[in-house]
Amino acid sequence: MEEFILQEEMMRARVPTVNGIGAFLLGPTLLAHGTDEQRAEHLPPIARGERAWAQGFSEPEAGSDLAGLRTRAVRANDEEHGDHYVVDGQKVWTSLGHNADWLFVLVRTDPDAAPKHRGITFLLVDVNTPGVTVRPIRDIRGDAPFSEIFFEGARVPVANRVGEENRGWYVAMDALSFERAGIGATIKHEQAIASLVEHIGTPEGREQLRDGWERGARQEIARRYVEMRVLYNIARFSVTNPVPGYEASVNQLFSAELHQRLARTGAHVFGKHGLLWQRRGAPLGAAFTHMRMDSVAATFLGGASEIQRNVIATRGLGLPRS
After folding, report:
1. What distance in Å separates the CA atoms of residue 3 and residue 242, rounded to the nearest whole number?
2. Catalytic residues
3. Alpha helices by DSSP H, the chain
4. 3-class DSSP state for residue 57?
5. Helix (H, G, I), strand (E, B), or coil: what is residue 215?
6. Are 261 and 192 in contact (CB under 8 A)?
7. DSSP letter at 69?
8. Burial (0-12, 13-18, 19+ Cβ within 10 Å), 28
9. Strand, helix or coil at 266?
10. At CA 69, angle to CA 65 and CA 75, rounded to 5?
11. Do domains 2-164 and 181-316 have the same CATH topology?
């Protein structure tokens, strides 16, 4: 809860936070599953902002079906490298991967495991390890917020394994719960709607407001605001447990779909002005036009909406899997 409050206040003040992936995903995961040595090595530089992290989970053939990942890690031992894993494979859509110093990745250590998720291991990988290559990927806007990562005979010490071999799936599920339980999206949505309301209250904003849509704009903005207060309380509820459970999936699902509704509201308000892509001279610097592009991916980042609904149904409501 203290971390929740700190993150909320920093985001409301619009000041940079410590590397989110390291501080908000890996940090709590190491507290729950890491060794004393791993905590001592990684937590202080994460807290000081000296070591940036990225999450290597998704693969070209394993997105929502994460248990289908194919990146292999074979255990080996020799005089030069000691007890280690040799990792080969590819990760994709790795957020901020090209800015990371370290990665936490899922690898397959038992290719014959059934069910598939029981043969997966969680490893910490230095990006400077020989055999690791990071390549940025450009998105629909022309930016490069994520990367693809290739492993070609990369040797990772066994000491960098978090949790037991072949039990990394359960470590990863806790990491994803920490990711889905954040307050960050709530504050960003609140700030976006506040800027929209402020703008359409100005003479310039009134002029840009879509013809004949003033009443509809009021109603739709009011709905978005109510939904954001609901999201805020869901986020608070999701951090009532040391490791968030199905509540984190409720938070992720509601936030992602609200992101898309909010983007559409901005587009409706500005009408033809909402088609302007260049920021200079556009209403609110084309913020809602860019948000609409961002929101396309909202319902599968951090786990597709279908996956979130499955988690809510089985873990939250106790429904059968079939």
Report:
1. 11
2. 179
3. 2-12, 20, 27-33, 36-47, 168-180, 184-200, 203-208, 214-238, 246-270, 287-295, 305-311
4. coil
5. helix
6. no
7. -
8. buried
9. helix
10. 150
11. no
Pairing of strands 72-78, 82-95: antiparallel
Cα 211 from chain centre: 38
How high is the pLDDT of residue 215? 65
Residue with structure tokens 């597709």? Answer: 304
Q: Indicate the burial class of 293 (C-beta count within 10 angstroms; 0-12, 13-18, 19 or more).
A: middle
Amino acid at 191: Q
Is the domain covering 2-164 a CATH 2.40.110.10 domain?
A: yes
**Whole-model pTM above 0.85?**
no
Contacts of 157 (CB under 8 A, 6+ apart): 81, 82, 83, 84
Peptide bond between residue 115 and the one before it cis (omega within 30 degrees of 0)? yes
- Structural domain boundaries in the chain: 2-164, 181-316
According to DSSP, residue 68 is labeled G
CA distances 296 to 184, 258, 260, 262, Å, are: 18, 12, 7, 12
- H/E element, 92: strand 82-95
Six token digits for residue 212: 């004949």
Residue 87's identity, in one-letter code, is: V
Q: Mention every residue, 6+ apart, whose C-beta is less than 8 A from residue 159.
A: 37, 38, 83
**Segment 175-229, tens digit of pLDDT:** 877 766 667 778 888 899 999 889 888 887 777 776 556 667 788 889 999 999 9
CATH class of 181-316: mainly alpha
Q: Using CB atoms within 10 A of its CB, is residue 319 exposed (0-12), middle (13-18) or buried (19+)?
A: exposed
